[in-house]
Amino acid sequence: MTPTGATRSTRMKFRVGMRGRASRFALSAVVVALFVLVPAAQAFAEEASLKLNIAGTGSGEVKDEAEGSAIGLGTPPIACSYDGTSTKGECKNVPGLLNGEAGFYAARLHAVPAAGSEFVGWRVEQGHDAGECLPASFFGPTTCLVYNEEENEEDEWVIAAEFKLAGKSSFKLNLGTSGTGSGTFKCKVDGGAEEACLAEYEEGKTVEVVPHATTG
């Protein structure tokens, strides 16, 4: 979905190929292999990471949850608290492994609202299958489960959690995309600077959604 008034830009990618003479075929094949395999080796050497952002008018805590599941705790385990203004604690880590299998990363986060607050929801802002966590029917709406494989290019997750003060009316913000490209959304609230979009906004807020297309 492209918000009203937004400008959509289209980028085209061209692939350039070259043919060598028959006598140079073997050498060309070696050169191509070098260009393909070196980046792949570098990608396998990279370590996955997870960053947690917490926002909203309420307060609460998000932590790693591994009990009763095949997902190992991240290093260090996520234990990130939010007071309605700022976060503290462990809010970034290397995700754990699924079934202890190298190359298969997974994270299971659990949100606990503080007294007088409510948990609003999750959003995967960056990473493989960005958008939403696995359906809430698996573990409930306060749990976010994501998983990935080392072979995927997106080996860095950015996950947002939101808390609000209990008892205030709010409205959900549903964002979607279409087309063959990819990108993210940012929001301007009451004419302010761009910031990560929240799942809900309090009644009376003016929200402008700004799309950003991914390069390539």
Could you characterize the architecture of this molecule?
The chain has 216 residues and is mainly beta. Strands 2, 3, 4, 6, 7 and 9 form a 6-stranded antiparallel sheet that branches. The protein has a 4-stranded mixed sheet with strand order 5-1-10-8, with no helix packed on it. A hairpin with a 6-residue loop joins strand 6 and strand 7.
- Spatial extent as radius of gyration: 21 Å
Instruction: Let me know the largest β-sheet.
Output: 6 strands, antiparallel
Shape: globular
Oligomer: single chain
Low-confidence stretches: 1-45
Mean pLDDT across all amino acids: 75
DSSP strand tally: 15
Sketch the topology as an H/E string, one letter per element: HEEEEEEEEEEEEEEE
Strand residues, percent: 35-45%
Brief digest:
The chain has 216 residues and is mainly β. The chain has one helix and 15 strands. The longest helix is centred in the first third of the chain and has 21 residues, at 25-45.
